[in-house]
Amino acid sequence: MKLQENKIRKLTLAGMFAALAFACFSYLRIEIPMELGLTGKIYVGHAFILLSALLLGAKYGALSGAIGLALADLLAGYTTSAPPTFLAKFLLGWATAFAAQHLCHLDTLTDDNAKLKAVAMAAIFGSVVNVVTEPLIRFSFKFFILGLPKQVAYISALNCAVSMAISNVVSVVLTVILYKVVEKSIRL
Q1: For the chain, which end, N or C, has fewer CB atoms within 10 Å of the first or last residue's CB respectively?
Q2: Element (H, E) at 110
Q3: Rg (CA), the chain
Q4: Is the pLDDT of residue 104 over 90?
Q5: What's the rounded Cα separation, in Å, for the pair 128 and 116?
Q6: How buried is 132 (Cβ within 10 angstroms: 0-12 exposed, 13-18 middle, 19+ buried)?
Q7: What confidence category does residue 146 fall into, taking pLDDT thresholds of 50, 70 and 90?
Q8: Distance between CA atoms of 60 and 45, rounded to whole angstroms?
Q9: Residues 182, 48: Cα–Cα separation, whole Å
Q10: DSSP per residue over 132-188, as a string?
Q11: Rounded distance between C-alpha atoms, residue 75 and residue 131, angstroms
Q12: Cβ contact 175:53 at 8 Å
C-alpha cells in the first residue's frame, strides 16, 4: 500500500508542478522583441520543471515539464511550438534529475549546505542542456518539418537560445530558494 501511496503522491505533485509551469508561461511571461520580428519569451516556469525533477526524479520531473509547457503552447496559440516544447522540456527535466541523482548524489546528502550546492549544480546542468538542445530541436523542427527557410529557422533558434539562457538564470536561483522551502515538507 505504501508504494501505491507514493505513486499517487508523485503523480499529484507532478500535476501541480505542470500546472505551475503552465501558469508561469501563460500569465507571468515577458515577451521581448528579437530578430526578424520574432519574440523571445522570458519566464520562470523552468523553476517548476527543475524543482519537479529534483524532488520527483526523472520520470515525473521530465513529464511534468513536458506536459505543462506543451499544453501552455497549445492553449496560447503556439500550436507548432508544442511538439518541440514537449521534447525540449522533457530533456530539461530528465537532465536535471540525472545530474541530481547520478552526478551530485542528492538523495544521499544529509548536510543542508551540501544539498543546496547539489541542487544548484543539478539545476545548472539541466539548464545548460536546455540552452543547447532546445534551439537545436526548434531549428530542426522549423527547418525540416515545417519547411521554413534556413535563415528564419536559424534566427529563431538563436532567439530561443537567448530567451532560454535568460529564463534559466532566473529559474535556477528560484529553484534553489524553493527547494530549500519545500524539501522538508514534501516527503516521498
Answers
A1: N
A2: none
A3: 16
A4: yes
A5: 18
A6: middle
A7: very high
A8: 16
A9: 12
A10: HHHHHHHHHIIIIIS---HHHHHHHHHHHHHHHHHHHHHHHHHHHHHHHHHTTT---
A11: 24
A12: no
* Burial of 32 (C-beta count, 10 Å sphere; 0-12/13-18/19+): middle
Largest Cα–Cα separation, the chain = 56
What is the rounded distance in angstroms from the CA atom of residue 41 to the CA atom of residue 81? Answer: 12
The mean pLDDT value for 28-54 works out to: 84
For 147, how many CA atoms within 13 A lie in the half-sphere containing its CB? Answer: 0
Distance between CA atoms of residues 174 and 178, nearest Å: 6
- Across 82-97, average pLDDT: 97
> Model confidence at 187, in pLDDT bands (50, 70, 90)?
low
Q: Which amino acid belongs to residue 53?
A: A
- What pTM, to 2 d.p., does this model score? 0.93
